[in-house]
Automatic annotation (TrEMBL), chains A, B:
<protein>
    <recommendedName>
        <fullName>Homeobox domain-containing protein</fullName>
    </recommendedName>
</protein>
<keyword id="KW-0371">Homeobox</keyword>
<feature type="region of interest" description="Disordered">
    <location>
        <begin position="136"/>
        <end position="187"/>
    </location>
</feature>
<dbReference type="Pfam" id="PF00046">
    <property type="entry name" value="Homeodomain"/>
</dbReference>
<keyword id="KW-0539">Nucleus</keyword>
<feature type="DNA-binding region" description="Homeobox">
    <location>
        <begin position="75"/>
        <end position="139"/>
    </location>
</feature>
<feature type="domain" description="Homeobox">
    <location>
        <begin position="73"/>
        <end position="138"/>
    </location>
</feature>
<dbReference type="InterPro" id="IPR009057">
    <property type="entry name" value="Homeodomain-like_sf"/>
</dbReference>
<dbReference type="InterPro" id="IPR001356">
    <property type="entry name" value="HD"/>
</dbReference>
<dbReference type="InterPro" id="IPR044559">
    <property type="entry name" value="WOX13-like"/>
</dbReference>
<keyword id="KW-0238">DNA-binding</keyword>
<feature type="compositionally biased region" description="Basic and acidic residues">
    <location>
        <begin position="156"/>
        <end position="167"/>
    </location>
</feature>
Amino acid sequence: MEDGKFQNGGGLGVKVMTDEQMEMLRKQISVYATICEQLVEMHKALSAQQDFAGMRLGNPYFCDPLLSSSVHKIGSRQRWTPKPAQLEILEQIFKQCNATPGRQKIKDITKELAQHGQISETNVYNWFQNRRARSKRKQSAILPNSGESEVETEIESFKEKKTKPEDSQPDEEDATPVSDHMHFHSPDIGIDQFVGKMESPGSCIPYWQMEQYDLFG
Amino acid sequence: MEDGKFQNGGGLGVKVMTDEQMEMLRKQISVYATICEQLVEMHKALSAQQDFAGMRLGNPYFCDPLLSSSVHKIGSRQRWTPKPAQLEILEQIFKQCNATPGRQKIKDITKELAQHGQISETNVYNWFQNRRARSKRKQSAILPNSGESEVETEIESFKEKKTKPEDSQPDEEDATPVSDHMHFHSPDIGIDQFVGKMESPGSCIPYWQMEQYDLFG
DNA sequence: ATACTATGAATGAAAG
DNA sequence: CTTTCATTCATAGTAT
């Protein structure tokens, strides 16, 4: 079939990758993609300052093939989108037990939902996970200071949205986000060689260390 | 790329690539590598020939986020984010012994990884715990649980059921498992400094990582 | 086309 | 070790 013209020496047209390999590959490429993105930006910024046209010529890679994003977005796997029917079932189940369904439960649900479309257990698992997390967030968002113990009410009709998406950065010094015109999310990384680690906010050893280092040793 | 030409071999959870896809992948990576090399060089050249100090001062993000390698707001990130270099090492170690590293082992690993950025033993410990747990979950997600809809011993024997891939599917009749030689070269271009700066992978998640979604349906 | 929002997915950390 | 929580990223859908 498809290996009619693109077959390797073995004559087999397909190869199987493990998740590990897949993941690694994805990571590698992501790294490249990010590097390129940033370098390109830098390049653009620099270009704006001076005209070093001569340098650009002769290099097919930064002339424009790159800048025009010929490399990016080559096919992409899109994420699962629950069908209305599936959603309904999920919501219903969620209402009953807004707790995490057990493994077996997940399986059952998955099987059930599979009748309405392609779905995997992971999808179901994620859905509940997200549903729960978001439900909780919304609750805390609408009741800032009241008692929060009895709030188990489902508020899906509440399309409460954050008035201010909040950059989630408590640090608002002179930082000028450049993300105005491009998605440069996470311009920061956790490389604080100088910042103290926050693993042990005191002098106590994390539970696991005690267990493994002190008791076990 | 039209996915219509390819098929997943009916694999459930197995990623099957055709030679064509493989070729494309290789090409993409090559392109990235080349681009990065070129851009890095260009950047170096530019940096050398001018001192865009003004720009630097005015824009902490533009100056050269890549070279400074740690331009991020202190305290803006709470949780550790492994850098590509660290991840690579971790994955490698995980491959060898996917068992829990002993206390000394953790220390060693931590020390090793510290060369690439801030990290603590707790981070390493957690990483392995998560890695293992998720590896297991993934495989159980597609586990050949032929059992009917009974909730029997849920503890099942997915201990070391399949040590190899998280998800193998007995449908690889004409599929050749990708050997570990399929590794494309790592970002071996001289941009380690840059790599260390990045932490947001996934600006481009091509067709791999695809699952049994409706990609073929 | 651009921006925004809703939400699926990934993952570090913590609880049990 | 297993399960759950919290936060973040990326993308599909939708509005401007």
